[in-house]
Amino acid sequence: MEYLLYAGLVFAVLIGSIGAMVATTKDTAGGYGTVGDGLLALVVLGFAVLTIGTSVF
């Protein structure tokens, strides 16, 4: 059970970090990142899900 709690905490921190990275990339007028930043965020999140998921289960 602790593993699931730890994995949830890691995902929350990862999503917050990626969100901050994308939001602070001021390549567009609104202050949000480019499409490339969004794709990079999805790739990183997918890799994290696979890595953490296989180690927990």
From TrEMBL:
Swiss-Prot/TrEMBL keywords: Membrane, Transmembrane, Transmembrane helix
Name used for this protein in its record: Uncharacterized protein
Organism encoding this protein: Halopiger aswanensis
Segments crossing the lipid bilayer: 39-56
Record's keyword annotation contains Transmembrane: yes
